[in-house]
Amino acid sequence: MARDTGFPDADAENDFTRMRRHAEMSRLMAWFTRQPADVNTVLPFDEVVAALGRVGETALGLQQVEVSTIVGSVDRTRDFDRYFRPTSSRIRERWQRLAAAQRRGESVPPVQLYRVGSMHFVLDGHHRVSIAIARHFRTIDAYVTEIHTRISADGINVTSDLLLKDHRRLFLSRVPLPSAQAEAIRLADPFDYAELAENVEAWGFRLSQELGEYLGRAEVARRWFGEEFLPVVRMARRAEIRTDLESDAELYMWLACERYRLVRKHIWDDEIIRKLHEQGHRRRR
């Protein structure tokens, strides 16, 4: 807890001034180190949920929430930074009034939060959260509503991460793999998800033609993963092709693209593997 001098109004003013100074120092440090522009931006709830795919919600009631997990806002993304430090002096009057009231021992109602994964987003109580951070409180009382999403929120740190999540969600809607198999498909470039989805759909179309029957998306996804993705990746790993690629999905994407570029075929055999092995060595050099 910040040091209390016994003068609530003065202490509240000092807290706000300190928070504003830290916010500006962080902006300056980000500029000096050429960090992404959104590194200190509070995460926008609507964009996060849209990227992950909202499927439902559950009211969890009154809880004590770790202040460090509050990283986003429903509608006040311009007034506070990622650490709920005020981004301007526009909210000074109300901020200091609430902070002084807290220091005088007046009751403070719980804030209202949305929970997405391990992250919390403020629906009501932005100033109270900011004041709690200024006074180094570890927890805050909150009414929490948990939001259930199509894909996991893990890995979201800055706003730019949402693009990757959004494309991954769209990929899994086109290629509905079970959760365990979906975890094996990880790509660094968000636009590669669309290319991979087209690859899977084309594979499923050729399989449907070969079998003479229609296959739904779930069946195509299941068979593609077991009959195409896993065998190809295992062959490539045994042949030590593109060992610089740690992600199996990245490796499969490279293999599929190079195979068609080199031989214009959609088959796998020893000759193709040999050519890809040579191509991989040339790529590393």
Automatic annotation (TrEMBL):
<protein>
    <submittedName>
        <fullName>Chromosome partitioning protein ParB</fullName>
    </submittedName>
</protein>
<dbReference type="InterPro" id="IPR036086">
    <property type="entry name" value="ParB/Sulfiredoxin_sf"/>
</dbReference>
